[in-house]
């Protein structure tokens, strides 16, 4: 994308604002800004440019606004081409959060204008920002669908205080799992994680991500991407891939065996994620997003987390209406039932080709 400049920003000095595209040599500068920007999230990190390009083969357009020679705001975008749902420009596909991070009004306007111009040039159906906070949302020209909520809560430095913060009924499940002899360990490969994850999403009727996706995440994000596995004896029963960002932890991909419900391995897994993150110095647990009216939504409420509606915003570009990319759509019910009946090896083979179109 060519550089675009705007007139001086009266709120932030006399320097013009230049909107540029992220290049390889800019990654360190970009991440240095993200690390200190209050609105930024793990999903604003420059490494997602690599994940989108190499992992999903979606063209990435990571824009940043520069002023006074410094980055003043960022907007990661990826061009999602789907045979199922058309073309869109999203900040950011396969991620919980996105949108513009940082900047004053003029900086944000510059990035927003550049994104809309890019969306029109690409001829996409719509432009989407996955805002986390309601006050970040753009003007009335954008459409909103109240589909998801996120669940975030502070962690105490002491493990016992975190345990006591879990409501009594759910805490009893965790204590029973502890008494049942479950234990956890950090894994340094995908050998236990991937089969547990793949079989879990298959039972849910959801296409699976490829094993190489998780390998790439581990390579790109290094120590900020960790696998925690729960065992009963020598048998792995549940496993979760965690993201770390500043003083936050986010369990992002996980799964359990068919025995996990009986032994409480899934519950114990999330407790261990909390306990270990607190010991590591994390002070916020992000339980991720869930769709309203689902079992996952209720599960997180049962842990004492308060749902925070996610104000995702979309702007129509060429489309007349937004696509219904939502598993709660009745049209998906037949697909979900059929997918569950596929043999697991076949589902694992086909899934990555389908899931990359969903975003």
Automatic annotation (TrEMBL):
SUPFAM superfamilies: Acyl-CoA N-acyltransferases (Nat). Residues 187-301 form the BioF2-like acetyltransferase domain. It comes from the Bacteria. InterPro entries: Acyl_CoA_acyltransferase, BioF2-like_GNAT_dom, PEP-CTERM_FemAB-rel, PG_Glycine_Bridge_Synth. Coiled coil: none annotated. This is FemAB family PEP-CTERM system-associated protein. It comes from Janthinobacterium kumbetense. The lineage of its organism: Bacteria, Pseudomonadati, Pseudomonadota, Betaproteobacteria, Burkholderiales.
């Amino acid at each position: 994308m060519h550089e675009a400049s705007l007139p001086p920003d009266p709120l932030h000095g006399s320097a013009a604002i230049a909107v540029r595209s992220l290049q390889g040599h800019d990654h360190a500068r970009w991440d240095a800004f993200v690390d200190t920007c209050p609105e930024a999230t793990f999903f604003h990190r420059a490494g997602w440019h690599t994940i989108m390009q190499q992992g999903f083969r979606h063209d990435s357009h990571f824009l940043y606004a520069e002023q006074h020679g410094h980055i003043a705001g960022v907007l990661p975008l990826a061009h999602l081409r789907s045979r199922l749902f058309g073309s869109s420009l999203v900040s950011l596909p396969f991620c919980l959060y996105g949108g513009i991070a940082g900047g004053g009004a003029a900086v944000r306007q510059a990035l927003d204008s550049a994104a809309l111009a890019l969306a029109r040039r690409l001829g996409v159906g719509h432009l989407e920002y996955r805002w986390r906070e309601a006050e970040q949302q753009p003007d009335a020209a954008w459409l909103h669908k109240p589909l998801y909520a996120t669940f975030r809560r502070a962690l105490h430095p002491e493990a016992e205080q975190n345990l006591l913060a879990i409501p009594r009924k759910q805490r009893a499940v965790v204590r029973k799992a502890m008494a049942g002899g479950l234990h956890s360990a950090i894994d340094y490969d995908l050998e236990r994680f991937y089969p547990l994850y793949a079989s879990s999403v298959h039972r849910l009727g959801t296409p699976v991500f490829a094993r190489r996706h998780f390998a790439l995440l581990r390579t790109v994000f290094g120590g900020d991407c960790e696998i925690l596995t729960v065992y009963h004896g020598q048998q792995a029963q549940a496993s979760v891939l965690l993201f770390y960002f500043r003083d936050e932890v986010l369990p992002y991909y996980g799964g359990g065996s068919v025995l996990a419900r009986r032994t409480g391995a899934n519950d114990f897994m999330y407790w261990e994620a909390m306990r270990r993150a607190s010991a590591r110095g994390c002070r916020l647990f992000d339980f991720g997003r869930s769709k309203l009216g689902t079992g996952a939504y209720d599960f997180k409420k049962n842990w004492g987390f308060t749902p925070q509606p996610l104000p995702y915003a979309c702007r129509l570009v060429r489309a007349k209406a937004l696509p219904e990319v939502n598993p709660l759509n009745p049209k998906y019910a037949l697909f979900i039932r059929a997918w569950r009946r596929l043999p697991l090896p076949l589902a694992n083979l086909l899934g990555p080709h389908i899931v990359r179109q969903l975003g």
